[in-house]
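Full entry
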Amino acid sequence: MLKGKTVLLGITGSIAAYKIAYLASALHKLHADVHVLMTENATNFINPITFETLTGNKCLVDTFDRNFQFQVEHVSIAKKADVVMIAPASANVIGKIANGLADDMLTTTVMACRCQKLFAPAMNTAMYENPIVQDNIRKLKHYGYEVITPASGYLACGDTGAGKMPEPETLLEYILREVAFEKDLSGKKVLVTAGPTQEAIDPVRCLTNHSSGKMGYAIAKMAMLRGAEVTLVSGPTAIEPPLFVKVLPVTSARDMFEAVTGVSDQQDIIIKAAAVADYRPKQVSEDKVKKNDDQASIELERTDDILKYLGQHKKDGQFLCGFSMETKNMIGNSRAKLEKKNLDMVAANNLKVEGAGFQGDTNVLTLITQDEEVSLPLMSKEDAALKILDKIISLTK
């Protein structure tokens, strides 16, 4: 995902420095060229050899170290960088950079970088809340640096409060958002639905389906990484929502219908990947509830047809994509859906094909439009999401 990208990690004197070993390793596994710069104080918390082993690059600490391959090391590294992250960022280094001071390898390199710079403060709560530190953070933001809000929790000093560096997984998501993909969806608003819906029969039971929500969540994440402003309307799932995506949680088909129609007019692209329950129990009368007769026979009615409504109310220039999950006659049934519901594209799959459909991490899709059918091989749902977005972008240019 990060092949050809150069990531600079700046590490300062904080106990949280040890967590950056995981981040450096994760970036290297994604094929990024990772360079680590450390302050002298940071080397008291973790040895530079750790990062050299994980990244395959020399860890830079001393500005005047002559054992390197570039003529002017901090300038050369700065020119290569696609993104810089200072994590953990101490109050000292935040103050230096905010005020234009560059007296070591880390600060001189950051000053020379023209790419986006991300700071993840990590310090005692009282230090973080100190008005001078807050003023320096505002200065960084004023000059276009992004400062990641620290987490709250138990700190190494024994206090509990704000100042804890976010976990490496979160920091990785900030880097991916910045450099993983070209921002070819920048300025676009994308609405994605995902997961199952649940229709209550009684306080204990419900009608639902086997949808995991993985396909819709993958689409939402990839659209965000490509620069879109994403809204994800999600039924009940066990998946952690992607960062930087607005999530509207719902339970029933009616909930999803209201959430989708409430924001659909504002969207440029709508992708309905949710597997909505087709039926819900009819309203049970008070008498039947009292007599406990509702368990003898449950009358069902159709739930709201979200795609049909969206197709009937599609605004000019809006792109509408639906999913079709079939067990037979996949192409014919999907084409009928395309026409009947006024869709621009259908992402179809056959649930009987190995690796396709619910629960798993892979899918086998056929992208169907008015003019063509594009069959995709077995791939991860994230890769499938990218193919869906590629096709949508090609059709909306």
